Amino acid sequence: MTSLAVASAAAAAAAVSSSATSSVLSTTATLFGKHATEVVAFSAAATLVPPLVTSIRGGGARGVAAPKSKSAQVSKTTEPSSASSSVFGIHLTPQGKSVVWMALGMAFHYLGYSLARPITVALFTSKSTGYPNSPGAFPFAMAFVSPVSLLLLISYGHVLEKYGPRGALSRSTLGCATAILLAAVGIFLSEQSGASLWGIPLTKFISGPLFVFRESYVQLLTSQYWSFMASVLTPNQSAKWFAPIAGLTSISSVVGGAAVSLLSGTLNLSGTLACTALALVVSLIATNAAYSIAEKNGFSPERQQKKKSSHHHKKRSKRAVEVEERLMVKAAKLFERVPVLRALFLEILASQGLATLLNICFVASVGKTIPDDTVRAGWVGNFYALINVFSMTLQFAVLPLLMQLIEPKDLWRATPLISLGFTTFQAFQKNPSLYAISASLLVMKVSEYSARRMLDEMVYVPLDFESRFLGKEIIGVFGYRFGKSLISLSLSGLTSLFGQFNLQSLSILSDVAAVMWAKTAWDLSSLVPTRKEAQDSYDKASTKNSNKKR
What we know:
Blueprint: H1 2-28, E1 40-41, E2 48-49, H2 79-82, E3 85-87, E4 90-92, H3 94-124, H4 137-143, H5 145-193, E5 196-197, E6 200-201, H6 202-232, H7 235-296, H8 301-315, H9 318-322, H10 327-337, H11 339-369, H12 373-402, H13 408-427, H14 434-460, H15 465-468, H16 470-498, H17 503-525, H18 531-549
Antiparallel strand pairs: 1-2, 3-4, 5-6
Helix pairs in contact: 1-7, 3-6, 3-7, 3-12, 4-16, 5-6, 5-7, 5-8, 5-16, 6-16, 7-12, 7-14, 10-11, 11-14, 11-16, 11-17, 12-14, 13-14, 13-17
């Protein structure tokens, strides 16, 4: 019976994601490149891909000088990667094809995540499977996000050193898919049997850890996708293409969020959750294709990692291996060496503190306002789909043009001010409604998914390998989750001292957090290079490394 449910979930997810994604991507193809009406068929699942990187030429990896001209000419050391190929009349360089595949992998990852998010919220706030009568349950669960993220990060560091970027991404993706599938099967069996432990339904023992894991795993995978693309594209190319690439994830998130109501009504919550595992498997196929192209054409990040690792191992003794530096020591040294990463880490802590407070308000309000589990899951799915519609509009239609007119630091400074206006309005409400809270959370999430996601990745592009891979994971995984856990622990402590906070009190705290976010974003903006400075730094490092090879 279990296998039948999982199989049905997989089939339904494949049908929904294939048809819906093909439709939206075909429409979105008009927003890309010179071939506005053409799309590329890349998989047997008939997923249509817009030629979003058709015009990219010579986006070499670190250690390879990017060509100055717009032609396909590159240096002799990178000749294998410079040959463009034609697919259905569309010319893509190997770098372009690898970025398309990696972007597709990230899109399927977010498709699955958009299915899992409303399901886990519905399970966590359900009377039968969650903790709706425990006001402190949500911040208590969020407090565990940082420790779990830290464990995932430590594991990632070991796997990255042993297997390289490709092996780390493959193993972490399979691990996440397996964990989610096991949780879906466990929930299905528990609901069917009505099993309990110490008088507590078994589903309650699954829904809590599942919620924490869902909050933890998303950034672990996301950071690895962006690390690859930041290694392949130059600063100028990233400024042009990162927003549309992020927009592709918004499209898949819209599809996933909108599909929750349909899938949960057909497959129940556990079956819909199993579809997340299926989406991760498809994501793995796409990311492996990206790395295969990069390895074949000589611009894979694997090369940089292996060279650095080989040089590193020659220098350190067996004793040094045994007393390897702790991750936090590595982070401290990295932040000291690269101040912009330290400022980015603090900005992320502040922004995620605000996001957590607004999320606590949202979960409490939606749980009271919408009692039915399936209806609540559908409502949350549609809400996040709306967030991604706004994000997609900004990523495709606004940000690419805006970034040609202003510098990144200007957008860093302006983004938090919009959220500050909404949280201030919410803080002055005596009993904030679900719609007022949702509006504040929507603005925060739209800015995070569109502007912040793009700006965040642009910071890494001109940096070295360690900053782009290990640094990104430290900041992306631990920073994002530590901010949430820190505010959750603080809130739990204040609750034990002063009693339960009402929605207005939480709204006031959210407004204070918005002020802190604006301050840290301003500090970060003073360290962010201009587009010209970033490109010059990239070209200088690439030329230096290229000369070393000769």
